[in-house]
Amino acid sequence: MSEPVRRIKAPVRLAFEINAGHALTGFLRAIAEGRFLGQRCVSCHKVYVPPRGVCPTCGLLLGEEVPVADTGTLTTFCTVNVPYEGQTMKLPYVYGSILLDGADIPFPHLVQGLPVPEVRMGLRLKAVWAPPAERKPTMESILWFSPTGEPDAPFASYQEHL
Amino acid sequence: MYDPAAGDGTLTAPYVLEYTYRRSLGPVIGRFLTGLRDGKIEGIRTPAGQVLVPPTEYDPHTGEPLTDFVEVGQSGVVTTWAWIAEPRPGQPLARPFAWALIRLDGADTALLHAVDAPGPEHMRSGMRVTVRWRAERVGGIGDIACFEPEPVR
User: Which alpha helices (H) appear in B42-91, and where do they start and end?
Assistant: First the structure.
């Protein structure tokens, strides 16, 4: 007899069709046009990007759509050093939380354009968009964020948004 | 509630969650699947004399480790079943079939597998079925292609 069986492949695969809903659809259509759209809470006045339709703090429907800048401040970040299945970026690379100017919650995306050891909290960043012809209503329309060259934002300017 | 037919202008996209797990089997399920690869079905005997198929590493009543393997029959009795009118990708058969709990001859517990029957009117609890082996076996539960109704003698 040949070798005993010691392991099996046991993949799990769940194929969904996901619906973005009204709020996120508006956001994604704006992304395809190279701009950010948030939503402001009528009660706490916080601006959520991406919008969720409902304020998670107040529990109220978010009303007004608010344009948000494609520049912002890096609040926190992590450096990815470990390869994983499906990885497309060259290691090491930085994934950060970016507080867009005019928004109240940070937005997660890639940080590129400077050596990894120089990435720091408070770094000022700007979205690098895919060429207009290649933009679609998906997050891939934003390639990454790269430094604007401005002085770092003071900690006090984002300490409430970590 | 979201209705994809409503055409309300919201965006939809495919979203696939996939985990490419590999699982180590341990001594008991490892031996069970090795048996399937070699064309035999083995259960395990408890101190109380029950034969469990598929085998477990521990006695479900006392928690004692189990090591006493016994080969069981390749035919048995359907204890319960459910008809699958529209099989999904990755299921044992591409045409409608029954999921069934099958108590093999010589076993005291039932094994879940597919039964290839022409229709639900051919299924009943208590019917006899027999294994249909896959031609190329690799050491997995899929080495049993399915069970099929035993010809009535």
Answer: none
Interchain contact A86–B (C-beta under 8 A): no
**pLDDT, tens digit only, all 162 positions of chain A:** 579 999 999 999 999 999 999 899 999 999 999 999 999 998 999 999 999 889 988 998 887 899 999 999 999 999 999 998 788 889 999 999 999 999 999 999 999 999 999 999 999 999 999 999 999 999 999 999 999 999 999 999 999 998
ipTM score assigned to the predicted complex? 0.78
In a domain, A16, yes or no: no
Flag whether A8 is in a domain.
Answer: no
Containing structural domain, residue A102: 21-161
B96 contact partners, CB below 8 Å, separation of at least 6: B83, B84, B85, B86, B87, B119
Q: What is the DSSP letter of A101?
A: T
Check B30 against A5: CB less than 8 A apart: yes
- Closest-CA residue of B relative to A3 is B34
Comparing alpha-carbon positions, the chain A residue that sits nearest to B90 is A13
Domain count, chain A: 1
**Which of B15, B31, B38 lies closest to A16 in CB terms?**
B15
